[in-house]
Structure formats: C-alpha cells, structure tokens
Amino acid sequence: MDSSDTTGPGVKSATRTVALLDFFARQGGMYSLSAIQQELGYPKSSLYALLRTLVQLGWVETDPTGTLYRIGMRALLVGASYIDGDPVVGMAHETLEWLAEVTGETVHFGRLDDVEVVDLSSRPSRHDLRPVVRVGRRVPVHSTALGKALLADRPTPRLPDELERQTENTITDRRALAEELRRVRERGYAADREENSTGICCFAVVLRLQRPARDAISVSVPATRLTKAAEREIPALLMRARERIEYSAHHLLH
Amino acid sequence: MDSSDTTGPGVKSATRTVALLDFFARQGGMYSLSAIQQELGYPKSSLYALLRTLVQLGWVETDPTGTLYRIGMRALLVGASYIDGDPVVGMAHETLEWLAEVTGETVHFGRLDDVEVVDLSSRPSRHDLRPVVRVGRRVPVHSTALGKALLADRPTPRLPDELERQTENTITDRRALAEELRRVRERGYAADREENSTGICCFAVVLRLQRPARDAISVSVPATRLTKAAEREIPALLMRARERIEYSAHHLLH
DNA sequence: CAGATCTGTTCAGATATGCGAACAGTGGCT
DNA sequence: AGCCACTGTTCGCATATCTGAACAGATCTG
To answer: Among A12, A18, A118, whose Cβ lies nearest the Cβ of B59?
Structure first.
C-alpha cells in the first residue's frame, strides 16, 4: 500500500480514534453523537461503537445521562508525558530558568506544529505571577515572536489560510509578513510588538538543532517595561541562552 | 453486548491505539517496534500498521532513523484541552486564585483517576516561584493530602497494590491508612505531614459535587512556614474556598 | 394526544483489518 | 568473511469491523 494514496492513512479506526480526540480538543466542549457525526461525517453507528469503546477506556467521558461526550482524563496524562519525554525540552529547562532569572520576565519554549506553535514550557515572570498555564496551547504563527522566528527559518513557510487579526498591530498581509520574515533572518531574532496581545511584546530565537528549525525560545515583556536598554539586552540574552541549549544538545547527541 | 464481557472493549484497533498511547505515557521514552511488541503483546505486523498510521497523523513521532517511536505532539494538544473544557476546573479557577492569594502558598486542584490523583491545575506560591508544572501529572493517592481526602470520601477505597514509600513519614501500612482516613472523615480535611515530599506539608478538602467525591483542592506549605496559626487557618480557608466553588457549581447546574 | 422529528441503538452483509509466516536488512560474534 | 541473532517490512487469507437501514425512545407541536 502506498503511503501517499487516496486511501488515506492505514488503519481506519485508529485514524478515526485520533480524529475524534482531535475534534474534542479543537472544539473543547460536550457533544452529542449526532453533533459529532455532523462534524466528522462518519456514520452514526461507527461513531457509536467507537465512542463506547473510548468511554470504557477512560479516553472519553459522558455526562450523567450518557448522551453527551467529552474528552477524558487519560488524554491529559498522555499529553503531559510528551513534555516529560522530550529530550530538548529537558535540556533547555535549566537554561530557561536562567533566562527567566536574568531577564526577570516570562519565558516560553515553543515548537512548530503545522501552522501553529505549541507552547511546551512556560516560566512565569518574576513580577506578575499570573497563573497562565499555556503549556500545550497553540498560539498563532504570524502574530508571535516564536512563530515568526520559526517561519523565518523555513525556505517556504507554510501559513494558515488566513492571517487572523489579534491586535491592531498584527501583520495580516502575506506580503508584509514575508518582508518581516526577511528582517528576522537579517537580525537573527524575531520581535512581536503587541502583535498578538495588547500590552505584551516578545522576542524569540530559534534553536538550530535541525533544519529547518522546529523549536524556539522567547521572552515576553510588558510594553511598559520595554526600555531601550531592554530592547538591546533581551535579544542578546536570548542568543546566549540559545548557545547554552545548543551546546548541551550537541553534547548529548555526541 | 454486555459491558463486563470477555470480549473486552468493542473496537479492537481503537483499544490498541489508546493502549499504545498509554504505554508511551507510562514509560515516557523512545521504544522500538519489538520493545513495544514485547510489552503490549500485540503481533508485530499489527503494531507496525498501527504505528505507521499514528506517525502519519502526528500522534506518534519517530527518531531520524524512523526506528524508534515516541508519543507525538498532537497528544499534548488534546491533553491540554481536557483542562480547558472541564467545567469544574473552570469554575474553581478564580477561587483557587483567591486561595493562593490569601494563603500565599501553592494550591492544587486534583482529580481521582483509578488509584492515583491527577493534578489539573496548579497555582505557584508567592514565595518560591518554582516552575514546577505538575499539571497532568499523577501523584500517589496514599501519601498526599489530595489523595487521602478523596479516599476518605469513598466507602470502599480502591488502593494501589503497594503503598510505596515516598518519605520516612509515608503511611505504607493499609491498616494505618484506614485509621488515617477515619480521622480525615472526622476532621473534614486531610493533611500530609511531609509524607509525599520531604519539607512539604499539605492540606486538602474534597469538593462535594458528586458522591463519592472526585475532585479535591489543596494548599502546600513548606514545613518551615507551617506555624501553629497556619495549621488552624489553612484548613479553614480551604473550607471557605470549597464553599465558594460548590456555590458556583450549584448555580451553574441550576 | 397523535403525529412529526428529532435523538440513540441494534443488526446482518459488505469490506477492511488482523494475523502468522516468510522476506530482507543490520550488526555482532567466532 | 561467514554465520547467527536480531531487527523492521511485506503479503495473502481468516476474521472482525464498518455500514446503512430499520427500530425504539424522547421531546416538541399543533
């Protein structure tokens, strides 16, 4: 069987299983059988058997009446293990600590997934310890420093169908974004000037562990704290952090 | 079809799909095809097809050689959505904020899963802002305040096969644990005196949203900060937090 | 209260997966 | 080198899933 066939991926019910889980993840609520069937297009009876199986295994939960479905807790456990098992996140950990310490700001570790960036690790700012747990959440690729840093490293960046406006500074034009990516390549780091979230600016650099880069690290700064000095220092610190991470990585991989 | 049948759960390859993901989550590393086959006992060729399917879908990743498998990023995204979609976690959120604020300590929201507690939400202490992201991780049920609070609410608590020793204070005897649970019921809250982690004490109460309780909230305090006053105040604050959460829950559910 | 129109559920035939065995690489050992 | 033990990979038949249509239960409506 050819892998790029019209038959789609090999095992049908495995494909559907994860498609179902993906559906719950994207929509994030409770859905009835028929609602799911309308969305995914699978036959009712197939979904029925599948859902019952997954409920039995704890991967899908139902409401007390047994008629509304949502994602189950086992999914959470498995998801968390992705981070624990990732060698790069593990190696980057102490350097991100250091980076948060010297900047006093919030740092993130992001990984490109299709046309979005997934936050794999967050270290809150020293100042505002908001409980924002963003780990495992997606952020747009065109309006964040993480995303732009990663896009800039690709010869032909894949972009979402529409560059959704997040703030009044968001770059929504594809030409303008291409130009911005050129500047990112030139400078060696990406910046986000309240393009994703009003009042928040970010800087990011990619980790050059594979080509094109898959991972990036960033520092987020409230616009009010973004002095001229900080604008110079933070990118420099990011690059030092990158060196440290890349160094450990090369040692680990011999 | 009977639910407690010898046929096992309905759709075989869905069962295997999630069993495979569970395997990766528990072991948390990279495994070869034959290693997985030894562990799970499925035929090689079946696993082969399944793994290829899941790799194609981003739920399993391979190393550069394509011979070692690990959990993929999509699993992380789906797991994170469990927390976002949970109504109780959502409602408890601002109360946990408040609890962290008034105590100045780290608070957790835990949910019972089989014989372990899963951390669904953490709010770091005001003092030591360690980046401990424990969300999605399991903690033992017998050595934590969260676990003991939840166990105490069950008529016949399910326990792990062995009560593993975590610190020198861990209760490892089943009789002693039963006695401890009796005290928890009497007092209305559970305490952990460095039983799970040396230097850390916890208090926890269950949320009475269903019988037996499924969720609990806790406050963790470094043993060095645990004054007599704190020992009285923290359980009282936990109970106030519980009232607030239960109140919002009943409003939401009418 | 009957009819209409949604739900979730079951069933037997069409169809795709699952299985063991044989094949093909790879590295280690004498 | 040659053999051996071990991987990952492919392939055809037995078998279990998938499916569409029919059934049943609930809610709404005039």
So the answer is: A18
Residue of chain A whose Cα is closest to the Cα of B93: A131
The secondary structure element, H or E, covering residue B180 is helix B174-187
Residue type, B30: M
pLDDT confidence of residue B129: 56
- Mean pLDDT of all residues in B112-140: 81
Cβ A46 to strand D below 7 Å: yes
CA B120 to C1' D19, in angstroms, rounded, equals 39
Protein-covered nucleotides of chain C (CB closer than 7 Å) are 6-11, 16-22
Name A164's Cβ contacts closer than 8 Å, sequence gap at least 6.
A140, A143, A170, A172
Mean pLDDT, residues B114-136: 78
Q: Domain A86-252: state its class.
A: alpha beta
Mean pLDDT for chain A overall: 89
Q: How far is A206 from chain B (nearest CA, A)?
A: 18
Q: Cα distance from A28 to chain B (closest Cα, Å)?
A: 5
d(CA A64, CA B114): 18
CA B247, CA A46: separation in Å to the nearest integer? Answer: 40
Statement: residue A83 has pLDDT above 60: yes
Please tell me the predicted confidence (pLDDT) of residue A65.
Answer: 83
- Both tokens of B193, joined, read 């005196």
Q: Which CATH class is domain B12-76?
A: mainly alpha
Q: Which of B127, B131, B86 is closest to A95 using CA atoms?
A: B131
Helices A33-40 and A44-56: crossing angle, nearest 10°?
Answer: 120
> Which residues make up the CATH 1.10.10.10 domain(s) of chain A?
12-76
Protein-proximal positions, strand D, CB < 7 A: 6-11, 16-22
Q: Is the CB of B42 under 7 A from strand C?
A: yes
Q: Which residues contact residue A13 at a Cβ distance below 8 angstroms, ignoring those fewer than 6 apart?
A: A50, B11, B12, B13, B14, B17
Write down the pLDDT at residue A132.
59
- Tell me the residue ranges of DSSP E strands in B81-166: 106-113, 116-123, 138-140
Burial class (CB in 10 A: 0-12, 13-18, 19+), B12: middle
Ramachandran angles phi, psi of A217, nearest 5°: -125, 150
Interface pTM (ipTM) of the complex? 0.87
Does the CB of A13 fall within 7 Å of any strand C atom? yes
